[in-house]
Structure formats: structure tokens, C-alpha cells
Design a protein that fits this description.
Elements lengths: L2 E7 L17 E2 L2 E2 H12 L4 E6 L4 H9 L3 E4 L6 H6 L10 E7 L7 H13 L4 E6 L9 E4 L5 E5 L6 H4 L4 E9 H7 L17 H8 L3 E5 L12 H21 L10 E3 L4 E2 L4 E2 L3 E4 L3 E2 L4 E2 L4 E3 L2 E2 L4 E2 L4 E3 L2 E2 L4 E2 L4 E2 L4 E2 L4 E13 L4 E13 L4 E2 L4 E3 L9 E3 L4 E2 L4 E3 L2 E3 L4 E2 L4 E2 L8 E2 L11 H8 L4
Parallel strand pairs: 1-4, 1-6, 4-5, 7-11, 12-15, 13-16, 14-17, 15-18, 16-19, 17-20, 18-21, 19-22, 20-23, 21-24, 22-25, 23-26, 24-26, 25-26, 26-27, 27-28, 27-30, 28-31, 29-32, 30-33, 31-34, 32-35, 34-36
Antiparallel strand pairs: 2-3, 6-10, 7-10, 8-9
Helix pairs in contact: 1-4
The structure holds uridine-diphosphate-N-acetylglucosamine and magnesium ion.
Length: about 475
């Protein structure tokens, strides 16, 4: 079997996106658009080399490629797709095999479609293969012109097409496969005498046929998989398709997503069977959710690890944190980064955790801020408790031992440590460490002034 390398084109100016960011770095279900194309090249069709063609000033894209160990080739000026492929020649010196050309802006591509395309090109040693599609609207795609026998004659770009040619519905997906030696020899023959003044890779079809080289055009339906992203509308359409794909995969794996059109799950998220997710939830990044969980509506979870049998109630936000088996969080809870909620622990409404380790079975059910804190197992945090962790300069920790009872409206002025089984009286401001089993109270004694209301009534009516 001949060898395969992939060249991904991404050096275009992306003017239609109207963005300062490279269009292939725009987010699609938690990943940059180009990452899906790179995955197809690396994992899907197992290319022995993957080269992305970029412009010299695309700093953001070049940084992304470097960080992800993806090779780049620089196209000095965006002179067209043919010129872009030529920019990869240096990196492929002496390579003998097939070059697959993909566009960095076609992220919905499926590995099976590309694999069977390559197989077909290789099977008869075609010099050039083009993957075509027949969308309902041929828009600005390059038209595939065939003769009366159905054999492809050329590709004509929409801008250069005659009225008759514009009526053709079969178009170029932008995915091509070439015999490497022929490709790099023939790229030099491209001309830029067209409306855009660019060197089109698509002109190689006509050139090959003139030379008597073999060309195949393979129709790779469904067309929406080959959707090219040029505008933000295209990106939104691609997201709709991607969301449906992701959600159907989870449903087939046993996850309940009854209203799946309104549930947003990033591509890398993993979810166990018999977990149910309700609408208007966003599950992002590298989140892992166990089995038998309930995620209610309006929940946002990002880069979190959620155990089994966890119940996240409506409108809670959880980031970069761990929630252990059987815990209950929400409604309206906020779990900020580096927090842990232990097994069977409970975090209730309007409770905010930050760098907080709430151990097994602990409860903070109402209206509290627990930041930079370690809270022992079985602790009960009363309503309105605050860890005062910041003195305007530095942050300090509050450490609460197992089975402590914290009365409502308590402030812990950190750094402070509370021994196990201690009790903190409601309304206390705790500034000193409390030994185990002690009762700590810091509120002032209650005064009783008898008949105070009656006396007041005489001065001012108070019905
Ligand atoms: C291209 C094809 C068209 C096809 C369509 C499919 C050509 C001439 N046209 O048109 O037949 O139907 O894709 O989506 O090939 N690029 C560079 N350097 C350049 C120009 C472009 O790297 O100088 C890259 C772009 O970043 C993009 C890809 O090549 O990833 C395609 O370029 P784009 O401008 O999007 O071409 P289309 O007009 O979509
Ligand atoms: Mg395009």
C-alpha cells in the first residue's frame, strides 16, 4: 500500500469571518475548528506526516500548532490554494506516495468518508482524486464539470463559471488526493489568470486530463459533512450538526437527553449510562460525568469530574472541580476551581465554594462563601457562613475538623483552625483557633430592656 501524508490548508485570509482570530481557531463544541481536521488526518486516515499551511502573520494559529506539536509550512502570501500546497513541498522532499489535501475549515468531515475516498484513489492508482458533494445550494463552491459520459473534465470556480456551469449542483468539497511526484511537478504549471488572480489547486484537474493522467471524482454525501466554514453563519450551522452528532452518540451510550436539541455537550466530554441531562445545560471542556446522575436545567459544568449518582440541581455552575459519588449540589450553587465536594456531601442554594475541600457527608445548604477552606466530614455549615480569606493583600486558609457544627451567620477570619467536634455558636466572628469539642461564641451578650416598646409608643405612635 502506498504511503500517505496530509497537507491541511489554513493560510487563507478568512475575511468573511470578520474576526481578528484565525477562522480555523474558532470554537466548535469545545475544540478549535482545525483540530477536527487534524484528528482525521492523524487518527482517521493515519497519515505518516501532517503539515498545516499557515500565513507568516497568523501568530495565534502558529502558536496553537506549536503547542500541539503539529508541523507547519509557511505560505508567504495568500496567492491561492495551489500556491498553498506548493508551500508544503519543502517539507515533503523525496516523498513517494499520496498527498491528501484537506481544508482547515471543513471540520465535520467523517473519517470513514475520507478513508473510502483514499482507498478508491489508491485502488486504481489514480493520479488525482477529488471528493465531491451535491448540496441543496451550490453557493460559491467550485463546480464539477463532467462530459456526456459522466467523466469529470474540470473544476471551475463559481466566480469564473459561465451561467450554464453555475447551474451544476455537484461541487468540489476541497478534499483532494494526489500522486505526490506528479503533484509537485504539476503545481508549477498553474496559472493565476482568473477572476481572483489566484493559483487554484482545482485547475490541476484540467491539467491532469490534458496530459492523459487518470482522474476520479468521488461523490461523498452527505453534503453537510463537507460544509466549509467561511462565515459565522456557517459556524453556527456546523455547530448544530456537531451537537446532534455528539448528543446522539451519548444517547446510544445510555445517556438520557430527552430535549437533545437544547443540550450542549463539548466533543471531549464523557458521560456514564443512566445519567440524565436536562435542557439549557452546557457541559464543557474535559468534563467526565459518572453513571446515574441527574443534571438539571441551566447547569454549566466545565472541566469537572462528577462521580456516580450525583444530583446537580438547576442553575448551578461548576468549574475545574471534583464532585464525589452521591453528592447533591444546587440549585443555584457555584463551585469555583480547585474545589472538592465529598461523597454524599451537600451544597445548597447560593453557596459559593473556591479552593474548598468539603469532605464526605459535610453540608453547606444555604447562602455561604467557603473559600480557601478545608471542611471535615460530617460538618454542618449554618446558613450565612463566610470564610474571610482575604485581608486585601494575601489569602489564608480556614481548616475545620470533622463533625464540627457551625451555627448560622458565622465568620471565620482566616487563618484559623477549628478542632473536631467543636460547636460554633450562631452569629460568631471567629478570629482564634478553637480546640476540639469546645463551644466557641463571640457574639455579645443579649440585653433585655423590659417594656421598651410601650415606652417608645408614648413618644411615637407604633401600632
Ligand atoms: C475552495 C475551492 C472550491 C471548493 C471549496 C470547498 C479552490 C480554488 N477553491 O474554495 O473549489 O468548492 O474550497 O470548501 O481551491 N487557503 C490557503 N492559502 C490561500 C488561499 C486559501 O491556505 O492562498 C486555505 C484557506 O485557509 C482554506 C482553504 O485553503 O482553509 C480553502 O480556501 P477558501 O478561501 O476557503 O476557498 P473557498 O472559496 O472556500
Ligand atoms: Mg472555504
Amino acid at each position: 500500500m502506498s504511503k500517505l501524508v496530509t497537507v491541511i490548508l489554513a493560510a487563507g485570509q478568512s475575511t468573511r469571518m470578520k474576526s481578528k482570530r484565525s477562522k480555523v481557531l474558532h470554537n466548535l463544541a469545545g475544540q478549535p475548528v482545525i483540530s477536527y481536521v487534524v484528528d482525521i488526518a492523524k487518527k482517521g486516515v493515519k497519515s505518516e506526516k501532517v503539515i498545516v499551511v499557515v500565513g507568516p502573520k497568523q501568530d495565534d494559529l502558529r502558536k496553537y500548532l506549536k503547542e500541539n506539536h503539529i508541523a507547519e509550512a509557511i505560505q508567504k502570501q495568500p496567492l491561492g490554494t495551489g500556491n498553498a500546497v506548493q508551500a508544503s513541498e519543502n517539507k515533503l522532499k523525496g516523498f513517494d506516495g499520496y498527498v491528501l489535501v484537506l481544508c482547515g475549515d471543513v471540520p465535520l468531515l467523517q473519517a470513514e468518508v475520507v478513508s473510502s475516498f483514499i482507498k478508491r484513489v489508491k485502488s486504481k492508482n489514480f493520479t488525482l482524486g477529488v471528493l465531491t458533494m451535491t448540496p441543496s445550494d451550490a453557493g460559491n463552491y467550485g463546480r464539477i464539470v463532467r462530459d456526456l459520459d459522466g467523466e469529470v473534465i474540470k473544476i471551475v470556480e463559481a466566480r469564473d463559471a459561465s451561467e450554464e456551469e453555475l447551474k451544476i449542483r455537484e461541487v468540489n468539497s476541497g478534499i483532494l488526493c494526489f500522486d505526490a511526484k506528479w503533484l509537485f511537478k504539476s503545481l508549477k504549471k498553474l496559472s493565476n489568470k482568473n477572476v481572483k488572480g489566484e493559483y487554484y489547486i482545482t485547475d490541476l484537474v484540467g491539467i491532469a486530463l490534458k496530459e492523459g493522467a487518470s482522474v476520479v471524482a468521488f461523490n461523498g454525501e452527505p453534503a453537510h459533512d463537507l460544509l466549509g466554514i467561511n462565515t459565522r453563519i456557517d459556524l453556527a450551522r456546523a455547530y448544530e450538526i456537531m451537537r446532534e452528532r455528539i448528543n446522539k452518540k451519548h444517547m446510544l451510550g445510555g445517556v438520557g437527553l430527552l430535549d437533545y436539541r437544547h443540550i450542549n455537550i463539548d466533543a471531549n466530554v464523557k458521560i456514564g449510562a443512566d445519567t440524565s441531562i436536562m435542557p439549557y445545560s452546557f457541559i464543557r471542556g474535559d468534563t467526565r460525568i459518572g453513571k446515574d446522575c441527574i443534571i438539571e436545567n441551566g447547569v454549566v459544568i466545565e472541566n469537572a469530574v462528577i462521580g456516580d449518582g450525583v444530583h446537580i440541581k438547576a442553575h448551578s455552575v461548576i468549574e475545574d472541580s471534583k464532585i464525589a459519588d452521591g453528592a447533591i449540589v444546587g440549585p443555584f450553587s457555584r463551585v469555583r476551581p480547585d474545589s472538592k465536594v465529598g461523597k454524599g456531601a451537600r451544597v445548597g442554594n447560593f453557596v459559593e465554594l473556591k479552593k474548598c475541600d468539603l469532605k464526605d457527608g459535610a453540608k453547606a445548604n444555604h447562602l455561604s462563601y467557603l473559600g480557601d477552606a478545608s471542611i471535615g466530614s460530617g460538618v454542618n455549615i449554618g446558613c450565612g457562613t463566610i470564610t474571610c480569606n482575604y485581608d486585601g493583600v494575601s489569602k489564608y486558609r480556614t481548616v475545620i475538623g470533622d463533625n464540627v457544627f457551625v451555627g448560622s451567620d458565622t465568620q471565620f477570619v482566616a487563618p484559623v483552625r477549628i478542632g473536631k467536634c467543636a460547636t460554633i455558636g450562631a452569629g460568631s466572628t471567629i478570629t482564634k483557633d478553637v480546640p476540639a469539642d469546645a463551644l466557641a461564641l463571640s457574639r455579645s451578650d443579649q440585653k433585655i430592656i423590659k417594656n421598651w416598646s410601650k415606652k417608645r409608643k408614648k413618644k411615637k405612635s407604633c401600632s
